Amino acid sequence: MVRKRPCSVCGKWFRADPRQGERQKTCGQQECRRELHRRSCVKWHRKNPLYDAHTRMQKRLAQEAPVPGPGGFVDPLRAINWPLARDEIGVGVATLVEEGLNAVLRWVRDAKSA
């Protein structure tokens, strides 16, 4: 049997739904459920502060799909929107990534031709 307990939002005593048992935290009023959800979202966003920025950056980078060249080949360096990447991660990091990708791409092209 589920015992009575106070709502974690409004403080009123309630008897939890037997199917929920000890997991039920609010009295079931819509305002209390909404407030508990809001608090949970705030807590999650504090634990994952870069999630929103990362998701926005992925969406913006995906908006501009690369155009395949001859033979269906997509140059991986042209697939990246470098001005946007520089704005998001900084010039130094973007330059380092770009140069690293250039080196890998040269190596792959040399290995493929040999």
Word description of this protein:
The protein has four helices and two strands; from the N terminus they run E-E-H-H-H-H. A two-stranded antiparallel sheet has the order 1-2. It folds into two domains: 4-47, no CATH class; 67-113, no CATH class. The chain has helices at 30-47, 51-63, 82-89, 91-113; strands spanning 4-6, 13-15. The termini are far apart.
Summarize the structure.
The protein has two domains: 4-47, no CATH class; 67-113, no CATH class.
Contiguous uncertain segments of 5+ residues: none
The best one-word shape is elongated
Strand order, sheet with most strands: 1-2
Query: What is the count of DSSP helices, taking H or I runs of 4+ residues?
Result: 4
How many E-type strands? 2
Q: What oligomeric state do these chains adopt? A: single chain
Largest sheet: 2 strands, antiparallel
What is the residue-mean pLDDT, rounded to a whole number? 83
Based on helices, strands and strand pairing, what is the structural class?
Answer: mainly alpha
| Spatial gap, N to C terminus | 75 Å
Question: How much of the polypeptide forms β-strand, as a percent range?
Answer: 5-15%
